[in-house]
Specification:
alpha/beta, 5-stranded mixed sheet
């Protein structure tokens, strides 16, 4: 009898098998996604009872395509991207917001002011991310000719285009490493000119979220813990980032990843509260939605209530 009781108690206290979740960041391995790598390597996901598989997108299968096809359960998206996806008929829910500030800049050649280059040939990512820039160019009457590029600064460095979009945590530093001078005269920062719209957040399809609320919240909380740990331990975090970079054979360098990590962490601090808030701001949602509706990028307004996890 005692043996039978022991077996029964053992069965009762055996931990439940962690729920599987495939998470796809929206780009290749880099410090932009450091908090998720930390949460994986430090066991935060495992402790939360979520079995997370981090699968980066490929050139043929972007992260958003994986979400559309239910191949991944969570991804990172910029706010404007998420709005476009919802407007396209795929309801999404934001379960964690990391970015509190916009990182986009326009860099022009030879010290010229980007806003004085009407009709300029400007590089834009072929995979998206440029919605805000298009809205700004229309509002300012710049009549830019948008030239798609995949993932490098080569067109700009070679002189094939007049200006290029860049992220302050990525292409901006790549340009600096080439020796191109970047000053207040030839760098336009969207966040400083009335276009401070939040970027990266973690999204799920709403139908999946409704069926897996507990898993979603556990994943979000463990991810937040990963980012908080990263902010407190940047050098150890860099080691973790470089592990993922090397495993995925990404062409980058340690200096660039250190700069990226520092800038991504800075962008997570809200300008008003001076805190790392991890939340969508209703005012930024409204601003982004209004601009995109006005410029025919959305058929209907996407509201804060449509985006948040309830």
């Amino acid at each position: 009898m005692a043996g039978m009781v022991a077996i029964t108690l053992s069965a009762i206290i055996t931990p439940l098998k962690a729920q599987k979740l495939v998470f796809s960041p929206q780009w290749t391995a880099q410090a932009q996604f450091a908090g998720y790598y930390v949460a994986q390597e430090k066991g935060f996901y495992r402790e939360a009872g979520v079995d997370v598989d981090i699968v980066h997108p490929s050139s043929t299968t972007p992260a958003l395509t994986r979400i559309r096809n239910n191949e991944s359960q969570a991804t990172t998206l910029q706010l404007c991207q998420a709005m476009e996806t919802i407007d396209d008929g795929i309801p999404l829910v934001n379960i964690l917001q990391t970015s509190m500030n916009n990182a986009m800049v326009i860099v022009s050649r030879r010290g010229k002011d980007p806003l004085k280059q009407r009709g300029a040939r400007v590089g834009i990512w072929s995979v998206g991310f440029g919605q805000l820039a298009i809205c700004m160019s229309i509002k300012e009457g710049l009549d830019y000719e948008w030239i798609p590029f995949a993932s490098t600064i080569n067109l700009f460095v070679a002189g094939a285009i007049d200006a290029t979009l860049a992220m302050s945590y990525n292409e901006y530093y790549q340009l600096l490493q080439t020796g191109i001078p970047l000053t207040e005269d030839n760098v336009y920062r969207f966040c400083d000119h009335g276009y401070n719209v939040q970027e990266d957040g973690v999204y799920m399809r709403r139908d999946y979220y409704e069926k897996h609320r507990e898993q979603a919240h556990k994943f979000a909380e463990a991810s937040r813990k990963g980012w908080e740990w990263a902010a407190a331990h940047p050098e150890e975090t860099l080691e973790i980032v470089m592990k993922y970079v090397n495993e995925n054979h990404i062409a980058t360098n340690r200096i660039l990843q250190r700069l990226m990590l520092k800038e991504v962490l800075r962008l997570q601090i809200d300008r008003d509260s001076k805190k790392r808030e991890f939340r969508l701001r209703p005012d930024m949602v409204k601003l982004a939605s209004r601009m995109m509706v006005d410029n025919l990028m959305l058929n209907h307004e996407v509201t804060y209530e449509q985006l948040i996890a309830r």
